[in-house]
Amino acid sequence: MSKKFFDYYSKYAEETPDKVVLRIDDNTLTYKEFMEKTAVFGSAMKKSGINADDKVGICMPNSIEWFIVFWSAVRIGAQPVPMDPQSGSLELSRLIPATTSKILFVTEKYRNNNIIKAVSELVPSQFELNKVICFADESAIPDIDCYVSANSFAEEFGSPDCDIYQPEYLHTMSLACTSGSTGTPKILSVPSGGFLSTQEEMGDYLEFTANDVMMLGMTLYHQGGFGMGQQMALKGGTVMYQPQFNPISFLETVQKYKVNIIQLTSTLAKVLLSTPDFDKYDLSSVRICYFAGEVLPKEIADIFVEKLGIRVINVIGSSETCTMVVWDSARDAGTDPSDFRKLSFTDFRVIDENHNDVAEGEVGELCVYTDGVILNYFGNPELSAEKILTDEKGRRWFCTGDLVNKLPDGIVRFAGRSKRIIKRGGNLVHAEEVEACLLTHPKVAAAAVTDEPHPVIGQQIVAYIQPKGDEKITRGELARYFDGKLSAYKVPDKVVLVEEIPKDIGKIQFKYLRKKEYK
Questions:
Q1: What per-residue confidence (pLDDT) applies to 426?
Q2: In which domain, by residue range, is 154 found?
Q3: DSSP classification of residue 363
Q4: What is the per-residue pLDDT for 519?
Q5: Cis previous bond, 124, omega within 30
């Protein structure tokens, strides 16, 4: 019988009860506390009417409580549904019913978003939930029957005894939520056995051990950030997140706790490298920097590999695949970080619009097989049929939307996302390529490229740039910098300087780029 997640957590709670599994700033959770607290909240959920396969919404930022709620739901066979804590009432009005969540766990606020207020505009006036459990002061909790504090919920319904559900291999472990370009939620049914096996295998490939400490820039409520953390937890190590990304405290934490593995995106890496006195921080404990979520410019990879002596792992994939293809400086030094190969437990095809394999040298869509490919898009059979292919062996392949060039020797070179192609006049521009070039500019701390309609050329290229310090950057300066690096038609038509590129999950949050606070 194959192992389950709680087999690992139970084992470590017995063998190393006081070992910290999760640290967020100064808040910690040991393996023993993990088992005790998931029993209390799991039993409380059961007593309040939550059964196997029922959906448990979580609209909370990175926190110990988030982790406990997620795994408490898994412990009883229910399906946790992490939601972006920046979601307002309009987004939640779509998301909560679409996921069929029966209860919802929330905190009072995240950044400028009052989560409880957003929820109270919907529940119970627009739709009902069994309960809204609030990690907040009593004064912030609405005086409505279904709203209850987390402490009261645990005290009234919780028990130290809670059986552990034994899921089938293809049981849906959780529903991961993403949003498409239209704002319509995409809800991913994550397979229990496949998610576990892919995270085990990736942890093996990276040679994680119980003595390791891992610090992640991406968030818990994003499937990628959560999954990469599980690769370490399955080894009995320690995983660390921040409540929200802060470069100085990130570097201080790495130094203080002698972190061995850090996880970043290219944007977060450039922000770190731009931090004043970066060279004064002791990063000698770090042996791996794990990149995901964005194109990794070779210039940034080289800094980590050659200057800092850190092994770089760069991956592409998606929340739908659980793991992905890889560039590894330990094996692929001298090649571009956008040249990827499959791992022993993954496979890929490069296909055309008719799902036929393309020839070497041609560009097509990357289609990935892993055992962790999602079972379906929950409640959306049409999208499931479009994106998930099943072969004659019953294996699920996911059409990623990543465009790649099929090269010799089983290598694919990332070209860009099909949805991020900018049609500028008669030319096609990959936004990721422009971002990667911008990130090499010495005055640029972070950058995000998108498009806007244009009456003559159809779409124009818009670059949102977070400069270093008080630096000023003009379009003319960028045109001179791009000269000889990229074609002239790839120079941004419009440059917008912003105080911060919104990157709450470690990936650029395009839906927040045009908000007033970033002007």
A1: 77
A2: 27-165
A3: E
A4: 41
A5: yes
Block mean pLDDT (10 aa), the chain, length 519: 91 98 96 98 97 97 97 98 91 93 96 93 94 96 96 97 96 86 77 96 96 95 92 98 92 97 92 93 97 89 96 88 88 92 94 94 94 96 95 93 92 86 84 90 91 88 91 92 89 91 65 52
- How many contiguous H segments (helices) and E segments (strands) does the chain have? 15, 29
Q: What is the pTM of this model?
A: 0.89
Nearest to 464 by CA among 497, 507, 415, 431: 497
- Give SS3 for 244: coil
Query: What's the pLDDT at 503?
Result: 66
Alpha carbon separation from 431 to 180, 428, 464, 515 (Å, rounded): 17, 10, 12, 20
CB count in 10 Å sphere of residue 331: 10
Measured N-to-C along each axis, helices 64-75 and 5-15 cross at an angle, to the nearest 10 degrees, of 120
Distance CA 66, CA 70 (A): 6
Question: Hunting for tokens 């971002």 — which residue is that?
Answer: 435
CATH code for the domain in which residue 426 is found? 3.30.300.30
For position 293, what pLDDT does the model report?
Answer: 80
Which among 141, 165, 189 is the end of a domain? 165
State the CATH number of the domain containing residue 39. 3.40.50.980
> How many domains does the chain fold into?
2
- Of 188, 67, 76, 66, residue with least CA distance to 115: 66
The pLDDT assigned to 419 comes to 81
| Contact assessment for residue 304 and residue 278, using Cβ atoms and an 8 Å cutoff | no
For 317-426, where are the E strands, in sequence order?
A: 325-328, 339-340, 347-351, 363-369, 376-377, 388-390, 396-407, 411-417, 421-424
> And the tokens for 231?
């690769």
CA dihedral 5, 6, 7, 10 (to 10 degrees): 140
Cα separation of 411 and 332, whole Å?
11
Residue 503, domain member (yes or no): yes
> Are the C-beta atoms of residues 384 and 350 closer than 8 Å to each other?
no
The per-residue pLDDT for 512 is 64
Domain assignment present for residue 440? The answer is yes
Token match 């926190």: residue?
A: 63
CB-CB neighbours of 88 under 10 Å: 14
Return the CA Rg of the chain.
23
DSSP string, 196-242: HHHHHHHHHHTT--TT-EEEESS-TTSHHHHHHHHHHHTTT-EEEE-
Find, among 194, 288, 301, 193, the residue nearest to 232 by Cα.
288
